[in-house]
Structures are given as structure tokens and as C-alpha cells.
Amino acid sequence: MVIRRSVLIERPIAEVFEFVADPRNDTDWCAKVRSVEQIEGDGPRAGARYAVIHKPVPFRPARRMDYTCVASAPPGRIEWREDDGSDVIEVIYELSDEGGATRLTQTDHAELGAPRLLRPMMKAGIGHDIDRQLRGLKRLLEG
Questions:
Q1: Most CB atoms within 10 A, among 16, 29, 53, 79?
Q2: Predicted structure pTM score
Q3: What CATH homologous superfamily does 2-31+70-142 map to?
Q4: Contact present, 134 and 127 (Cβ < 8 Å)
Q5: Alpha carbon distance, N-terminus to C-terminus of the chain
Q6: What is the mean pLDDT of each run of 10 residues along the chain (143 residues)?
């Protein structure tokens, strides 16, 4: 399943990339992320790994997620692999300069452990979460 969302942020591309490329900032703009700890690598580069505690499903306990940087090409693209033992999501952030502002597009390729019947509902929920996160990121970086 593929989910894609985009936002225009009135900040230079290098600033937006630096912020979103460091998962330790995720607690500031991703409501479901509780904590992030780097466990391998030096900074947000390809091969860096993070232990993330997140709560993706309401009324369910938080769970640990392995978050790995797959590729990084500053300031235009960074790719991540999220694996929490149930779901695997490849997250791609693509950034483009739009006259001093930055267009950030997030594309998620999700392999969900949920039953097939529930996947359309989960896709809608993930899309809603991404919309909310990107609005939060915009407010935070423009504020």
C-alpha cells in the first residue's frame, strides 16, 4: 500500500532537511512517537539506526520500532525503514526548493500485519496521521 502526502513549508530547504533528517526531532512533530534513541551510526546518515517507542494504534500499548536510515541525499531526499515487528513501512521524504520555501513530500510504502479486510481503514488512518504530522511540522518550523 502506498500513501503520499505533501506540504509547503516557508523555510529554506537545507533547514527543513536538517530537521526532518534527524529522528530525534520526531517527538516534536509526530504525536505517536514517544521517544527516539540512536543505537547505531553517527548522525542521520545511511546505516544509522534508532530505537523508537511509538503508539501507532489507539487503545493499544506503545511498542518498540527499529528505524533505519536506508539512504540520504541532502538536501533533497532521505529514506527510512520502520519495522515494529508487525508492520514494515518504507518512508521517503523528498524535498524541493520552491522559491525559498520547501515542498516536502512524504511517501510511505507499507506492508501491514493487519488482516486484509482492515487494510483500507488502516490506510485511511495512516494518511490522516501523516496529514496531521505534516501540519504540525509546518507550524513548528514556521513558528
A1: 16
A2: 0.91
A3: START domain (3.30.530.20)
A4: no
A5: 33
A6: 97 98 96 95 90 88 95 97 93 97 97 83 90 97 96
